[in-house]
Design a protein that fits this description.
The chain has about 150 residues and is an alpha/beta fold. The protein has helices at about 5-15, 50-55, 60, 80-90, 105-115, 130-135, and strands at about 30-35, 35-40, 95-100, 120-125, 140-145. It is built from 6 helices and 5 strands, in the order αββαααβαβαβ. A 5-stranded mixed beta sheet has the order 2-1-3-4-5.
C-alpha cells in the first residue's frame, strides 16, 4: 500500500536516524516544503570531532536525566543539524514542515520558531513541557503521527 506523505517522510526520518552516533537516543529529522526534502539531520558530535561511541556519553557519565541540561552534551540535535545544513547550502526553510522521530526539545523549538518552521510532525514524545508551550504560543501546528 502506498504511504501518505506524512508516513513517507517519517519513514525517511527513521533511516536518517540510523546515522546518529548518540549512545542514548537516535533521532532523525527532515525539513520539507511543498513535498520536497530541503534538508536532513541526525544527532551526534559536530563534524570532525570524536563520536560519543569513542569518548563515552558525557550525560551518562554525569548522571544527567533525559530531557534535562541539554547543553551538557557533545552532540548536536537532529533538528539543529537540519537547520544548519539548510543554512550551509543556502536553502530557506521559512514556511516548511519539520518531520522528526522525536518531539523537539525547548532549545530546538526556539530555533525552529525563528527559522520559520510552520508545522512539526513527530513520531515519539519527549518530556519537555516548555517546548510544547512555546511552540503552541508561536502557533506552530503540531501533529503526532498516527493521531
Amino acid at each position: 500500500m502506498r504511504p501518505d506523505w506524512d508516513e513517507y517522510f517519517l519513514e525517511i526520518t527513521q533511516v536518517v536516524a540510523k546515522r546518529s552516533t548518540c549512545l542514548r537516543r537516535q533521532v532523525g529529522a527532515l525539513i520539507v516544503k511543498d513535498k520536497h526534502i530541503l534538508s536532513s539531520g541526525y544527532n551526534g558530535a559536530p563534524s570532525g570531532l570524536l563520536h560519543c561511541s569513542e569518548t563515552g556519553c558525557t550525560r551518562e557519565q554525569m548522571h544527567i536525566p533525559r530531557g534535562e541540561r541539554h547543553e551538557l552534551c557533545r552532540g548536536i540535535h537532529a533538528e539543529q543539524n537540519a537547520i544548519i545544513q539548510a543554512a550551509v547550502h543556502g536553502v530557506s526553510i521559512k514556511g516548511a514542515t519539520l518531520y522528526t522521530t522525536t518531539f523537539p526539545c525547548v532549545l530546538c523549538a526556539k530555533m525552529l520558531i525563528n527559522a520559520g518552521i510552520v508545522k512539526i510532525v513527530y513520531q515519539t514524545g519527549y518530556p519537555d513541557k516548555l517546548s510544547l508551550d512555546i511552540l503552541k504560543e508561536a502557533k506552530i501546528a503540531i501533529q503526532e503521527w498516527g493521531k
